[in-house]
Amino acid sequence: MQMNFHRKLPIPQEVKKEYPLTERMIQVKEARDESIRAVFDGRSDKFILVIGPCSADQSEPVLEYIGRLRRLEEQVSDKMILIPRIYTNKPRTNGQGYKGMLHQPNPEEKPDMYKGIIAIRELHLAALRDYDYTCADEMLYPENYRYLSDILSYNAVGARSVENQQHRLTASGLETPVGMKNPTGGDLVVMMNSIAAAQASHTFLYRGWEVTSEGNPYAHAILRGYVDYAGRSISNYHYEDLLRVDELYETMKLKNPSVIVDTNHNNSGKKYLEQIRIAKDVVHSRNQNPDIKRLVKGLMIESYLEDGAQAVGEHVFGKSITDPCLGWEKTRQLILDIAEKL
Predict the structure, then answer these.
(1) What does the alpha-carbon distance between residue 105 and residue 250 come to, in Å, rounded to a whole number?
(2) pTM for the full model?
(3) Are the C-beta atoms of 274 and 261 separated by less than 8 Å?
(4) What is the CATH number of domain 12-341?
(5) CA pair distance 151, 128, nearest whole angstrom
């Protein structure tokens, strides 16, 4: 086997014991989880925003962003639930580039998975301890989910992972909502099949154990656009797209029909300023059709302290080193505008 085994990493139980939640933090998470689940099963009509940096590259600017988000949420909490994105694992289209804080807690240093495991847990703990926020992360590696399983309130399975058996089966054992993105090629049936798999019970191999999952009734769709055969970005957030997904939910008889619309990626063609228009377009579609309003539970938006993106090593505080993001002032105004139209 052409791999070098460097060291045995601590198991999740050991890390959780060394970096535990307080009783108060556990209570905050339980309350947050229940309020979020209530949106997906229809008991609450609040609108969800999964919002934040494309990648959580440094703790200080991420926590500055989250602090601003907490203060802003006080103005819209009667209509919205904000779930900060703390994305610590990054899929790379061709396998190259910054793979997230889990790999590189310092983007300018070599990968160190042990330091990364500690860094991502400390960051999520700080968001919960200091700002009462349980956050969202991408389940890029199903076996690593357990390092954060007691902190996260939302998980996403990415477009490149949604057809993977281990991701689907692991999602079926989570108690919190899991968004299954449409694949990069755009096939909605593939996405719906992944939701069906995640909502069902399974017996499978996980971290060296034979486990049985109960099925996750909160598994749902994330529409993020796709790439056609010629490499062009094609959006799928429009009125007709949403009705099509609603029809697929009905045909497949899945639980809690729900959609989160990702306003960036191929929906925006990675033109990050388009997120503002797309977000408002989706809210408008909800207001025109009660079926779409019932279906679309919220949006996923990439934003940070500063507009755009920068290269690793440029050191602009709060500016993305992966996909370009909306800056804070545009984000603030967009959240207020959305709340006004709900």
Answers:
(1) 44
(2) 0.96
(3) no
(4) 3.20.20.70
(5) 8
